[in-house]
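As the next step, I wrote out a protein sequence along with its fold in token form, included below for the reader:
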Amino acid sequence: MYPHQAERLTQTLERHGLEALIATTAANVVYVTGFSSLVKEVYRTASFAVFARGGTALCVPAIDLAPIVVDAVAVDQVVAFGGFVSSYAEAPDTAAQRIRALAEARAATPADALAAALEAVGVSVGTVALDEGHITPQAWQRVVARLSGYTVVPAFDHFLAARRIKGPWELECLQRALAIVEEAANAVVQMLRPGVTEQEAVRFFQQATLQRGGMPYGAIVAFGERAAIPAPSPSDRALRSRDLVRLDFGCVHRGYCAEVARNAVIGEPGPRASRAADAILTGLEAAIGRIAPGVTAGDIHATAVGATREAGLPGFTRYHVGHGIGLEPYERPKLNAGNSTPLEAGDVLRVETPHYEHGWGGLSIKDTVLVTTTGARALNRSAHGLVVLD
């Protein structure tokens, strides 16, 4: 665990009078331990990551022991549960010996494993906060019954609050993820020509992202009238002359997310497209210019909407104009109307001003911004304007 994460979680323990924080969601488990479980991703199995003053612990199904040991996940205690069976060589190496020892000591149930992990990190009484984000009501009841000697309270909000402010390692990952997605987006722009379909462009983005070390997600390429659909699946619609092109891409690098949205047009844009593109860019720039510690999330929303309207889209309305981004694409704070949450240095915000008109088309622009101690710093490097394609 990096010092920043340990500091944020320790502050949470102290602020709320807790003895331990127990993560269940994939993002929160990664935040506590750095461990990402393919088993949890595919099968949604139960697992826990414990943070306490006495150390960290992972409670995992036995099938997850091998990646934890072989990849040397930096966690103080590991407790397995379940009946997964492994085979071992006649002369097992050190890793195999540790996997077998942990498997042979496994608990009968996830709740039993969690109880053992809490004891192992020195928590035997008091209030513990359990992340309800990836646990069924029935599983919650089983855990609470097993932890009858503790007071169990919800933890999901505590984790979101802790993860909100990013540390140096997280910023490095976010910056690289953003560079990857921008490079891949630029590669897509370079390959666009009449006759290319949305599906072909999306596949090209996915390949370009993988080649650069990222994992693509949420790719949107929308042509012409389909650009008005906020979240379209890629179709076999081919690019035609004078079409608007809306590009909206995401990727993950080392667990951290980045997104970018840009716009293009085949041939010279008409006055309507030019006016809309200029207006949403003006709104985005005004919002970024307003970002600073102490300014509320609602102020950023009002600034973006007001500037976009004044710049040429008088009917522009948005529920939000962005939110935090990090281990998940959608984090706090949300930049929505009336939100009194003050921004803090270390917030990383994905700011956006999309505009959709059904029957005409749509445009979107997204930037990623770090809140600094004195203001804001945009992390993007790609051009913002409407790209004119031959």
Summary: The mean pLDDT is 96. The chain has twelve helices and 17 strands.
